[in-house]
């Protein structure tokens, strides 16, 4: 598959019944005229995928600046399904780097067709863009130095906390400070690596973010043993692929692909590959077992946000 990189429902039945329903839902893209974004993709013979440069293990660069990761593998499976659905075996894949600040605008303005990074599906964002079925579930916690006196949110008084700009974690933290009138200074950085550097260099006492992001930053640190993921989870979030709002044909293909992966065992194998095994480029292992919430999603694929 030739690629060009540019830097810049609710509950569904499981098993065979689920796959049958997903297949039926996708029939309009095959049996009827293509509309909307699928028609555009077919006409230009190209699909544009948005990816993240450093969202380990979801979507990030290897040593050769090739995109790899759990979400990226799922995106490629969706592309494979889409090729068959629209009869475009030679469909080209163009890739554009996105970040937390521009990923939604790039979907809205038509620059990106599908983004599979580490994006949270919530009710507010669902007013702006569409989301596939959930591909992962994460919880927000704190990353601190092992020898710090921070063990929970209650220990953040008078401290500086790093968070990545444009994320739901940033929004939660700012709301928390406002509602609790907490004495917490917030430093927002462009990406996760910069947020961790704020902690690493001592400018922040903790880094607040999704637990899988924190685990990846800890695993890639010069001295991982100096850091610990701690504190009670503050939020639980559904991670999904993002697509233009109202694009039912494209969503049907994405959902059908994800349902097949999650109910067949392929999705569990992908999870173990990226969350429970050494991964490129440095052979780090996040050692994050699948949560009960994520197991439930795999048993019953759905596109429900978790902020109800």
UniProtKB/TrEMBL annotation:
CDD domains: PBP2_GltI_DEBP
Keywords: Signal, Transport
Every Solute-binding protein family 3/N-terminal domain range: 46-278
InterPro entries in the cross-refs: Bact_solute-bind_prot3, Solute-binding_3/MltF_N
One Pfam family from the record: SBP_bac_3
SMART domains reported for this sequence: PBPb
ATP-binding is among the record's keywords: no
PROSITE patterns to which the protein is assigned, alphabetical: PROKAR_LIPOPROTEIN
Signal sequence coordinates: 1-31
Gene3D superfamilies documented for this protein: Periplasmic binding protein-like II
Keyword Transport: yes
SUPFAM superfamilies listed in its UniProt record: Periplasmic binding protein-like II
Similarity remark: Belongs to the bacterial solute-binding protein 3 family.
Official protein name in the record: Transporter substrate-binding domain-containing protein
Organism: Paraburkholderia edwinii
